[in-house]
């Protein structure tokens, strides 16, 4: 999924914002969940993006770890960008290695899309709004108002992560998938 999103996302207007066919999404999700091999190359990239966000939402405790939720949300309240980046890197060290590896690929894809935002209309802010709720959620449910505030904060964090991903994850994230 990530490879396809890396290849097609940068040239796709509204990637992660528009959803594909609900029927196709449901059929493909059932196939994937049952272990059936699926060739996503012949499907709409919007369905693939929806499937990927669904995959992220189904990671127990979220990929950024709901246990670290308060720490993630408070990162942007810290001093300058350098201090924020160091805090993020310390939080990443507390995550399971598999989460960090997947995050590097995710932000490699998001960076590639953001680099062509004039073409696809998905700058870091727009990408963050679409993907942030799939990356982190609070450990306990709350009121809609509190949830709305939380989504704003986590979206700002994800925007910062996209804008600074090379400094956070290393410059090699721009070439994890090779050339587009």
UniProtKB/TrEMBL annotation:
Highest rank taxon of the organism = Eukaryota
Q: Which residues form the Rho-GAP domain?
A: 1-169
Give the matching InterPro entries.
ARHGAP20-like_RhoGAP, Rho_GTPase_activation_prot, RhoGAP_dom
Q: Supply the SMART domains for this chain.
A: RhoGAP
Show the GO MF annotations. Answer: GTPase activator activity
What UniProt keywords are attached to this protein's entry?
Answer: GTPase activation, Phosphoprotein
Q: Which GO terms describe its biological process?
A: regulation of Rho protein signal transduction; signal transduction
Checking SUPFAM superfamilies in the record gives: GTPase activation domain, GAP
Query: Which Pfam families does UniProt cross-reference here?
Result: RhoGAP
Read off the CDD domains from this record.
RhoGAP_ARHGAP20
Record's protein name: RHG20 protein
């Amino acid at each position: 999924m990530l490879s396809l999103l890396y290849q097609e996302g940068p040239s796709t207007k509204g990637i992660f914002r528009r959803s594909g066919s609900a029927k196709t999404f449901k059929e493909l999700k059932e196939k994937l969940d049952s272990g059936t091999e699926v060739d996503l190359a012949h499907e709409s990239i919007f369905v693939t993006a929806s499937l990927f966000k669904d995959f992220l939402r189904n990671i127990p405790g979220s990929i950024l770890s709901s246990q670290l939720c308060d720490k993630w949300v408070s990162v942007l309240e810290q001093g300058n960008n350098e201090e924020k980046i160091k805090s993020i890197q310390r939080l990443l060290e507390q995550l399971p290695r598999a989460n960090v590896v997947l995050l590097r690929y995710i932000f490699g894809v998001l960076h590639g899309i953001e680099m062509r935002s004039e073409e696809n209309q998905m700058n870091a802010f727009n990408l963050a709004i679409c993907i942030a709720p799939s990356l982190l959620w609070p450990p306990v449910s709350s009121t809609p108002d509190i949830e709305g505030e939380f989504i704003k904060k986590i979206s700002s964090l994800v925007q910062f992560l996209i804008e600074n991903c090379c400094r956070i994850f290393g410059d090699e994230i721009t070439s994890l998938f090779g050339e587009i």
